[in-house]
Design brief:
single chain; 263 residues; alpha/beta; Rossmann fold; 2 domains; four-stranded antiparallel β-sheet; binds adenosine-5'-triphosphate; ATP-binding; ATP binding; ATP hydrolysis activity; transport
Length: 263
Amino acid sequence: MTGLTVRHRRTVALDAVDLDFGTGVHGLLGPNGAGKTSLIRVLATVAPASGGRVELLGHDASAHRDRPLIRRRLGYLPQEFGYYPGFTVREFVSYMAWLKEMPAPSVADAVESAVDRVGLMDRIDAKVKTLSGGMVRRVGIAQAIVNEPELLLLDEPTAGLDPEQRVEFRALLRDVGRTSTVIVSTHLVEDVAAACEQVTLIESGRVAYRGTTAELTRLGEASPDEGASPIERGYTAALRSHRGTTTGRDQRTRSSWGTGAQR
Ligand SMILES: Nc1ncnc2c1ncn2[C@@H]1O[C@H](COP(=O)(O)OP(=O)(O)OP(=O)(O)O)[C@@H](O)[C@H]1O
């Protein structure tokens, strides 16, 4: 994408961002309100850009006729996803496969494979409304991967998952990332450390840092900041550097709550 700008009324959520993502697992980090969801929604073709150019899987995301072609090859788990509570897991994931226009003969096997990958085979014929929050999240992941997407977009996918499920989910991400482009927005730096090769740090609608997970960790190792792990220290150091301050504890505290750029 080049010059991607997203405005929500007076708020500039993304400010002329240039980014490209190749095969592999990419972590999208940033404080609350940084612009991560705004970016993912444009990539998922559910929200228009206010400016700039976005090319997805060789298509122009702004071209109406190209969007169905993109959506067939895309998987998307929104931060809050809607589902029909009366559907069973099988019915819901099948319905999403149908929306993605998957060939009918392949749907039944694809649904079982996706549900199996998120560890819910024993609940495949249970109604979604009878599942726990973490299980519903896994149904959301199953619907996102049912079409074996070439571009997988996940907005806060580990919210509600217990630690064991998070470990399994990270393995799934690494597996999908072998052949596809996976973009994961998260607040959990340890998700990034465990599953992502590349990190993009967004703040106030701008790219604050890009590098490999190992580079961000090394940045943290060299940083005197307090923090639970080197990569968390790297996150703080990269944000500070972007803000152009090396001493501003007050500024860091203020900014770590996230701010939209009001124009
Ligand atoms: N529908 C909307 N109307 C008005 N402002 C919005 C809307 N959606 C987002 N914003 C603003 O745009 C900015 C970016 O929001 P966005 O949700 O993309 O951030 P985020 O990085 O995903 O945040 P979080 O980590 O809290 O989910 C914020 O200032 C937010 O308040």
